[in-house]
Amino acid sequence: MRFSFKKEDRILKRSEFLELTQSGRKLQNDCVIAFFVPGRYDRPRLGITVTRKVGSAAQRNRIKRLIREYFRLNRQHLKQNWDINIVAKPKAADLSSEKVFSALQDLFEKISNCVD
């Protein structure tokens, strides 16, 4: 198992984010939205979108850290290599890390059960 989070594990290009939003499947709960498509690479990749509507820079960075950490520790549970973009909702800024992790776990289980 590798638990690192390298540049190859990230979605960085704007065109890939747009493709995920326009043609990807969408799942959501009360604090995050996930757009996902089958990945083109041999590993699952993660993109994170946290807008200024969520809160201050410190709150946005905290949310991004929590999402990255959850992905880093739990990506091996995904049954396929997915490209996933997680979009934080404003409610996410007020939640504890445990609640954010449980919301992400719920989404990752649903993504893992999707068959393409």
What do you see in this structure?
With 116 residues, the chain is of the alpha+beta class. The chain has one domain: Ribosomal Protein S5, domain 2, CATH 3.30.230. It is built from 3 helices and 4 strands; from the N terminus they run αβββαβα. It has helices at residues 14-23, 57-74, 97-113, and strands at residues 25-28, 32-38, 45-49, 82-88. A 4-stranded mixed sheet has the order 1-2-4-3, sandwiched between helices. Helix 2 (57-74) crosses helix 3 (97-113). It is globular and about 35 Å long. The two termini are 25 Å apart.
Which architecture would the CATH scheme give at its second level?
2-Layer Sandwich
Q: In the CATH scheme, what's the topology name?
A: Ribosomal Protein S5, domain 2
Mean pLDDT: 90
The amount of helix comes to: 25-40%
Number of strands: 4
Instruction: Domain count, please report it.
Output: 1
Cα shape: globular
How many strands, which pairing sense, and closed or not: the largest β-sheet? 4 strands, mixed
Secondary-structure element string? HEEEHEH
Given as residue ranges, the uncertain stretches (5+ residues, pLDDT < 50) are none
Strand content: 15-25%
- Count of discrete alpha- or pi-helical segments spanning 4 or more residues: 3
